[in-house]
Amino acid sequence: MEKTIRFRFIKKGEQKYLSHLDMINMMVRALRRAKVKMKYSSGFNPRPRISFSPPIPLGIDSLAEYADVTVTDPVKEKEFLVLLNSELGGRMKLIGAIEVPPGTKNLMSQVDIASYLIRVRGRSEEKTVVLDCMKGCLKDLDLEEAVHDMEIIRSIADRGNILIRLHAFVRALAGRNAKVFKVRGFLECLGTALAGRNMGVESIIKEELFILEKNKKLTPFEVL
Amino acid sequence: MREFKFLEYNKLAQLLEGIEKPGRYIGNEIGISSKDLEKLRGDMMLVALAFPDIYEVGMPNLGLQILYDIINRHPSFSAERVFAPFKDMEGRLRHKDVLLFSLENRIFLDCFDLIGFSLQHELLYSNVLNMLDLGGIEVRAKERPAGGPIICAGGPAAVNPAPMSRFMDFMVIGDGEVVIIPVLESTARFRAGIIDKDAFLDEISRLDGIYVPSHYKYYYSSSGSIEKIDPPVKVKKALLPDLDSARIVTRPVIPNIKPVHDRYAVEIMRGCGRGCRFCQAGFIYRPVRPRDVKSLIEQALEGLDNTGYDEISFLSLSTSDYKGLERLVKEVSKGAGDERLSVSLPSMRLDSFTVDMAELVHQGRKTGLTFAPEAGSQRMRDIINKNITEKEIMDCIDSAFRKGWDKIKLYFMIGLPGETEEDVLEIAELIKRIAFRARDSMIGQKRKRFSMKVSINVFNPKPFTPFQWASQDEPEKLDKKFRLVLDNTKQKYINISWSDPERSRIECALSRGDDRIADVIEDAWKNGARFDNWTDMFHKQAWYDAFKNNGVEIGYYTSRKYQTRETLPWDIIDIGIKKEVLLSGYRKALRMSGGLE
Question: What whole-number distance in Å separates Cα of residue B498 and Cα of residue B456?
Answer without folding.
Answer: 5
